[in-house]
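stage 2 :: seqdesign
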């Protein structure tokens, strides 16, 4: 009977050792997995930080372009107003030239003034055309920057979601590791009690 009891105890100790080794192996595996997850989490945090920096840069570019567009738009409006004013003056001078031609006096002076105004109007039209081209180019650049900004905001949101999921996984692994350590401690305590 005593032999049977010793054999049972030996089997229990052997089984207990196997269980302890298995638990230790699982704990080690969980710790490795937790470390890997933490490293991945750190990489994602760095990527997210870089995305945020890029996004701030794009927003800064967008604000700069917006400011330039507003300036160019104001200059364009001023040029249009000046062109309209000159066209009105040109119309008045043409009328005056017609009257003077009918009267036959001061034709040369009026024609010179008319020519000067026409030259000035031509110059203003060229400046206006250049301003319109610059405004188009700035608008296209603004659209590109806004598109890039939108894409980066989407990428940042995706990274934040991945970051959140990885943090949840890390927390679960940590909790499981703690439970395994607790089981191991209980198991060791049970072995000590059995030996007594």
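stage 2 :: out
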């Amino acid at each position: 009977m005593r032999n049977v009891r010793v054999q049972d105890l030996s089997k229990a100790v052997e089984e207990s050792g196997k269980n302890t080794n298995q638990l230790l192996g699982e704990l080690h595996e969980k710790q490795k997995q937790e470390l890997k997850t933490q490293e991945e989490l750190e990489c994602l945090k760095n990527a997210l930080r870089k995305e945020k920096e890029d996004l701030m840069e794009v927003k800064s570019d967008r604000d700069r372009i917006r400011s330039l567009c507003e300036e160019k738009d104001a200059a364009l409006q001023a040029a249009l107003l000046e062109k309209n004013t000159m066209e009105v003056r040109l119309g008045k001078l043409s009328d005056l030239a017609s009257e003077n031609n009918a009267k036959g006096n001061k034709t040369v002076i009026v024609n010179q003034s008319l020519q000067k105004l026409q030259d000035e109007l031509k110059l203003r039209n060229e400046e206006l055309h250049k301003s319109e081209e610059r405004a188009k180019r700035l608008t296209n650049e603004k659209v590109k920057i806004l598109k890039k900004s939108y894409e980066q905001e989407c990428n940042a949101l995706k990274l934040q979601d991945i970051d959140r999921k990885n943090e949840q996984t890390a927390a679960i692994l940590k909790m499981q590791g703690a439970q395994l350590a607790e089981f191991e401690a209980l198991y060791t305590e049970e072995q000590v009690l059995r030996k007594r």
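stage 3 :: structure notes
- The mean pLDDT is 79.
- The two ends are 19 Å apart (CA to CA).
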